TrEMBL record:
Reported function: Catalyzes the epimerization of the C3' and C5'positions of dTDP-6-deoxy-D-xylo-4-hexulose, forming dTDP-6-deoxy-L-lyxo-4-hexulose.
Organism: Paenibacillus abyssi
One example GO MF annotation: dTDP-4-dehydrorhamnose 3,5-epimerase activity
A Pfam family annotated for this UniProt entry: dTDP_sugar_isom
Enzyme class: isomerase
Pathway(s) it belongs to: Carbohydrate biosynthesis; dTDP-L-rhamnose biosynthesis
One GO-annotated biological process of the protein: polysaccharide biosynthetic process
GO cellular component: cytosol
Subunit architecture: Homodimer.
Lineage: Bacteria, Bacillati, Bacillota, Bacilli, Bacillales
Protein name: dTDP-4-dehydrorhamnose 3,5-epimerase
Site location (Participates in a stacking interaction with the thymidine ring of dTDP-4-oxo-6-deoxyglucose): Y138
Length: 185
């Protein structure tokens, strides 16, 4: 496994070891001891799985407030997505900055999204499946979001007319969004 640092502190891109031959491949998508050896100490308690049947489906930007904030370990198991993470930790040197990554069934990359980051993705092809582990249960009372098209963020999404849920059309801009994360350096 290779851990790639990103320009957003604490956000990690993970390349698992993949063993392939003429039959296909084998990989450990998660091994607690291996992750802990690399300093990833979260205890994941729930797996989530989504299917987006069309290209251009955008889900996000989502997060949960403390005390139900979630760390996510995200991967794309079918198709390809453009995955975006925004630092929303007050006091962070990268507060309000975003970074995007291509996660796909082909590249098998995973993204560790710590608490204090808003997360979203846009499907690049039809029939994308995304799986992610979380270290806290979903709590509707703590569920929040930021507008996908917030001009102050300037996210370069791969579509200008995404397919959105009703919920995702109503998120506020970052300056108006409720968030209670503090950067700890």
């Amino acid at each position: 496994m290779i851990i790639l640092e990103t320009h957003l502190p604490d956000l990690k891109l993970i390349e698992p070891a993949v063993f392939g031959d003429h039959r296909g491949f084998f990989m450990e998508s998660y091994n607690e001891k291996t992750y802990q050896k690399h300093g990833i100490m979260q205890t994941f308690i729930q797996d989530n799985h989504s299917l987006s049947v069309e290209a251009g489906v955008l889900r996000g930007l989502h997060y949960q407030l403390h005390p139900q904030a979630q760390t996510k370990l995200v991967r794309c198991t079918a198709g390809s997505i453009y995955d975006v993470v925004v630092d929303i930790r007050k006091g962070s040197p990268t507060y309000g900055q975003w970074q995007g990554f291509i996660l796909s069934a082909a590249n098998k990359r995973q993204l560790l999204v710590p608490q204090g980051f808003a997360h979203g993705f846009c499907t690049l092809v039809p029939n994308c499946e995304v799986m992610y582990k979380v270290d806290a249960l979903y709590s509707p009372d703590h569920d929040r979001g930021i507008a996908w098209n917030d001009p102050t963020l300037g996210i370069d999404w791969p579509t200008s007319a995404p397919i959105l849920s009703d919920k995702d059309t109503k998120h506020p801009m970052l300056t108006d969004a409720e968030h209670n994360f503090i950067y700890k350096g």
